[in-house]
Amino acid sequence: MSAPEDLQDIYTDELKDLWSANDQMKKVLKKSRRRRVTHRSRKC
User: Fold this and answer.
1) What HEC string does 1-39 produce?
2) Per-residue DSSP letter, 43
3) How far apart are CA 20 and CA 2, in angstroms?
4) 6: region left, alpha or beta (phi > 0 left; psi from -120 to 50 alpha)
5) Rounded distance, CA 23 to CA 16, Å?
6) What's the rounded Cα separation, in Å, for the pair 40 and 38?
7) Highest taxon of the source (predicted)?
8) At 40, which helix (H) or strand (E)?
9) How many other β-carbons are positioned within 10 Å of the β-carbon of residue 4?
10) Which residues of 9-34 are buried (b: 16+ CB within 10 A; e: fewer)?
11) In angstroms, rounded to a whole number, what is the distance separating the alpha carbons of residues 8 and 37?
């Protein structure tokens, strides 16, 4: 990755990082939800 040349490059890189973090969080929440549902069904 090259060094940012202006504020727009920095802004774009930050948005990409935030978008990636959001996608990662979605995956974690989906896994967590599945585990919780599975755990509840095993208790019954």
Assistant:
1) CCCCCCHHHHHHHHHHHHHHHHHHHHHHHHHHHHHHHHH
2) H
3) 19
4) beta
5) 11
6) 5
7) Bacteria
8) helix 7-43
9) 13
10) eeeeeeeeeeeeeeeeeeeeeeeeee
11) 43
pLDDT score for 3:
80
Q: What would you report as the CA-atom Rg of the chain, rounded to the nearest whole angstrom?
A: 18
Per-residue pLDDT of the chain (44 residues; tens, 9 = 90+): 678 789 999 999 999 999 999 999 999 999 998 888 777 777 66
Which residue type sits at 15?
L
The span from the CA of 23 to the CA of 4, in Å, is 24
Check residue 41 and report its DSSP letter: H
